[in-house]
Amino acid sequence: MTDTPTPTDIARDVLTIERDALDLMRDTLSETFDTVVDRLLEVPGRVIVSGMGKSGHVAAKIAATFASTGTPAQYVHPGEASHGDLGMVTRQDAVILISNSGETRELADIIAHCARFSIPLVAITKKPDSALARQADHVLTLPDAPEACGIGMAPTTSTTCTMAMGDALAVAMMKLRGFERENFLTFHPGGTLGAQLLKVSAVMHTGDALPTVLPDTPMSETLIEMTAKGFGVAALVEDGRLTGIITDGDLRRNLDSLMSRSAGEVATRDPRTIAPEALLIEALGVMNTNKISALFAVDDTGQLRGLVHIHDALRAGVA
């Protein structure tokens, strides 16, 4: 009598099978991959990705990953392509077709369209001698590995490998294009990810909104400036440069003689600052570490450029 495997046992078996397949794909990846990447980088239009069934779901994800990392891309459903959506595939594009067997009948019209208009066609398939592979200009071969479903039929290992192949293509092109975090933010303005990539300059207060005083400004006027601007701080500025900061703590430490002193006498010199081009999440980290609620932003020469408050980070969704 054999023991019935637990769900955890089954999960580990699945992960092991798929891991082994990914290892095999990595070890057998050929120079064709380089050729495909070079070809896709030269495409003046978009990369069209298509597949049927589970391969179609993977194709849609790959297209989305391309698009978000600097490679214009679009998913086209093969069934809809046969009923008019072939018009989305132009001579300026390249096409990636996904089929584990390479014999998916629904891809026939897209294959014929690519041949008719000399559109570069890349196949991702497990069968290098399949009908799809024979028609393609380039073939990226999936490993000949078993599906992890237990009956060898449900797309599991094959879809995992296809997804990984798509990620490898997207990341390779991303790096070769010089696509950086700043570019990524352009395509991800919403949500937590977009917020984490925001720069201080995107949210900081500038111009007349800044609470600024000169070294000889009486503290009576300094208090008015701090109250009017509403940040609980004031910047000590000389020739446009930030030379000090006045906080609530400075007011308490000088309470006995406060109204007889000037801003320059009360200010804390060499305050913590942040660069306008720094990430907002970095500014939040500085504020949290030092238990402060605001940071002045200065450029490389010490010129005051703005102020970021912890509430700005909260509103942007960083905190």
Please render the helix and strand layout as text.
Layout lengths: L6 H22 L3 H10 L5 E5 L2 H15 L4 E3 L2 H4 L12 E5 L9 H9 L4 E5 L5 H5 L2 E4 L15 H20 L4 H7 L3 H6 L3 H4 L8 E2 L5 H11 L3 E6 L2 E7 H6 L9 H4 L1 E2 L3 E2 L5 H11 L3 E5 L5 E6 H7 L3
Parallel strand pairs: 1-2, 1-3, 3-4, 4-5, 6-7, 10-11
Antiparallel strand pairs: 7-8, 8-9, 11-12
* Sheet/helix structural class: alpha/beta
* Poorly predicted residue ranges: none
SSE series = HHEHEHEHEHEHHHHEHEEHHEEHEEH
- Average pLDDT confidence is 92
Please list the strands of the largest sheet in the order they lie side by side: 2-1-3-4-5
Radius of gyration in whole Å, from Cα? 29 Å
Percent in helix: 40-55%
* Tally of helical segments: 15
Considering the protein shown, what is the CATH homologous superfamily of the largest domain?
Answer: Glucose-6-phosphate isomerase like protein, domain 1
Give the CATH architecture of the largest domain: 3-Layer(aba) Sandwich
Instruction: Give me the count of strands.
Output: 12
Biggest sheet: strands, sense, closure? 5 strands, parallel
Counting structural domains, the number is 2
Per DSSP, what share of the residues sits in E-state strands of 2 or more residues?
15-25%
